Amino acid sequence: MALKRNVGLKGIKYRGGGPMISWALHRISGLAIVLFVGLHVISSFFMQQLGSDFATAINTVYESIYFQFVMIFIVLFHALNGLRVIILDLWPRLIKYQREATWLQWLIFIPAYGMTVVVMILNQLQGG
Amino acid sequence: MSSRPAPQIGFSFEYMMWIFTRISGLVMYLLAFIGIVMAFVMGARQQVDIGALARWTFFPNPNHVVDTNIPDVTLGWSNAWWQVMEMLMLFFAVTHGLNGVRVVVEDYMRNSWARALGRGVIFLLWIFMLIFGIYVILAS
User: Fold this and answer.
1) What pLDDT band is residue B2 in, cutting at 50, 70 and 90?
2) Which residue range(s) make up the domain with A30?
3) Hey, are the CB atoms on B25 and A83 less than 8 Å from each other?
4) Shortest CB distance from A68 goes to which of B6, B50, B93?
5) Is this complex scored with an ipTM above 0.85?
6) Number of structural domains, chain A?
7) Does A92 map to a domain?
8) Once rounded to an integer, what is the mean pLDDT over residues A40-68?
9) Contacts A–B by Cβ distance under 8 A
10) Cβ contacts of residue A41 below 8 Å, gap of 6+?
11) Residue A42 lies in a domain
12) How far does the CA of residue A3 sit from the closest CA of chain B (Å)?
């Protein structure tokens, strides 16, 4: 049984508004997390058990600071957006404040992500 | 503009997974919070880079956190505690994540055979990741 939703090419078309951007980003970041975490678990396993060079190469990419910038963005966004969705779903009366909730979400996201990035760059410059 | 309707309330698989996604999200927040707080309570103050922090947050197994200057996590009850924490995180994270992939499959795979294939692959991946993860937790 398919969920009777209007997706496909029509669903991809941008219909305006912040909520849709949040929805798309949530879906993309969720798929990215499944892909990256799955690959990380499998490659760590082969690195540990067989000393595979290919698996080591994958984990080296994961430990690079550039990849970590992207990964922190994705995980932090997915976590905060997920929390917003949970709160609005558990208290449906709050749904009329969802624009404010989205602003609040970015108000938390930007300093948290910004500070992390600044600390990481400072550590990198110190050779740490 | 209306948002996508929530599944019909009742004892259906779709509704159960809808609830589970939200509950598991909250549970993962709790597990992550416990991991971070306990790492710092146990004295992880130097050598906590973003990798170590992520490992304490999501999967504090001994091979992962060997570089942080905290007491050994493999001794006695501490071992049991962290293994249970890891198994909870494993179960909730894998199920939450693969259920998300399943929803995407239901949304975008129109052919019934493609959808059946997608569901089958996801179910096998789910079983595989759980067994694989429990092996890693118990072996390391």
Assistant:
1) very low
2) 19-125
3) yes
4) B50
5) no
6) 1
7) yes
8) 84
9) 63
10) B129, B132, B133, B136
11) yes
12) 6
